[in-house]
């Protein structure tokens, strides 16, 4: 086993992951979850199908222009292409840092109204060092909080903040950049204002716990949800309102030392995630800038359309990869506040033929 890596490597990799104009592909779904995705296009949940799907994404020509990192699941980190090239090597040669999901799921917190904490700390030191040896250079840990009449509770916030900080400390000592993900679910009928209020409490608690555990803030990334009204809320928020609430919340809670805020796309369509990210960056530029890169760590918003096109058909790999690089490109543009459409997820097959320039980054 390798010993603890110096923090300068962790800080350098955090800045590489947060470089402007790039983002992270979150392809770390568990075997069960990716199986549901495969089954939605008529494929069995087998290791061969999971491997083929990941190979289609990771070998997309030109996608390294727009991605700085890719989060992998445990199985995927140790897989290879059909010709035997390890996925970590494929990603590395494209300039994409491999990452690894290190939490192992949620469990109920006794005495709460269905709130949860996250498992995986017990053997994290050994696992994170083994993942570093395998080629991973960053990690992800997801905590989940719910908004309700009396939720999230102070207990749930404190437990999840503490666990996120402990995870971050262990990963940094093992040479991995920790992505700190306090996801606040959009389930419910709460307003945009209520979402912002809860996010401020949660983010502040997480930052306090990071300080308490002496985590190096220059060597982490934050992965939150954008500030959105609840999925069942009668209130509808415009991209401008979402951007204003999100930027205000971050400015109130997240220290400038953190290199990047990499948003998840949960609850948004592929196009909504891009538009909201672009609006957020445009607003930041108009209001004095932001000390952190405002980027993406998208899963479904980068994978759903390529998966539908591919559907296990080898003759569709090129077309699916065209879509994958197109989605990565428009989101990279959104990181710079330069996205102007059209969105590749909205193009028909015939129209996609007119946008082949996405692959090589040619002008559209």
From TrEMBL:
Keyword annotations from UniProtKB, A to Z: Glycolysis, Lyase
Keyword Lyase appears in the UniProt entry: yes
Domain of life of the organism encoding this protein: Eukaryota
Pathway(s) the chain acts in: Carbohydrate degradation; glycolysis; D-glyceraldehyde 3-phosphate and glycerone phosphate from D-glucose: step 4/4
SUPFAM superfamilies for this protein: Aldolase
A family per Pfam: Glycolytic
InterPro entries for the chain: Aldolase_TIM, FBA_I
Molecular function via GO: fructose-bisphosphate aldolase activity
Entry annotated with the keyword Phosphoprotein: no
GO biological process: fructose 1,6-bisphosphate metabolic process; glycolytic process
The protein's enzyme class: lyase
Coiled coil: none
EC number: 4.1.2.13
Gene Ontology, cellular component aspect: cytosol
Catalytic activity of the protein: beta-D-fructose 1,6-bisphosphate = D-glyceraldehyde 3-phosphate + dihydroxyacetone phosphate
NCBIfam families, A to Z: FrucBisAld_I
Assigned protein family: Belongs to the class I fructose-bisphosphate aldolase family.
Protein name (database record): fructose-bisphosphate aldolase
Organism annotation: Klebsormidium nitens (Green alga)
Lineage: Eukaryota, Viridiplantae, Streptophyta, Klebsormidiophyceae, Klebsormidiales
